[in-house]
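pls design
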């Protein structure tokens, strides 16, 4: 019988919250937020689902972190800018971080004064 040798664990980069959130955003962008699960995210990262819980409490906390990341990328108006220029394009600034922005609603609750995509 051959002697047993110690099995060396595979080296991989340590799991970090920012990597988890970035991967979750990519998966949500590709497949939709509804299909995002801790198991699917773990598979994409090459880890077990339970290892994600060391970095995020649950799926709700993960989604909160995703929202925080997207909002952190929104360009804010510079201090002292004219108020009209600050109000002219907040929708575009808010949608800029998203790769595939959502389609505009068929009918706006604001009536005809809301001009999506302009």
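designed seq:
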């Amino acid at each position: 019988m051959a002697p047993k040798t110690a099995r060396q664990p595979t080296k991989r980069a340590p799991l970090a919250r920012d990597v988890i959130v970035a991967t979750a955003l990519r998966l949500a962008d590709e497949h939709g937020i509804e299909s995002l699960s801790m198991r699917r995210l773990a598979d994409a990262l090459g880890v077990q689902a339970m290892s994600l819980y060391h970095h995020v409490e649950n799926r709700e906390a993960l989604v909160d972190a995703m929202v925080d990341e997207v909002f952190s990328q929104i360009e804010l108006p510079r201090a002292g800018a004219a108020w009209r220029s600050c109000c002219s394009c907040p929708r575009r600034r808010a949608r800029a971080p998203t790769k595939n922005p959502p389609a505009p609603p068929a009918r706006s609750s604001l009536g005809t004064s809301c001009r999506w995509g302009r």
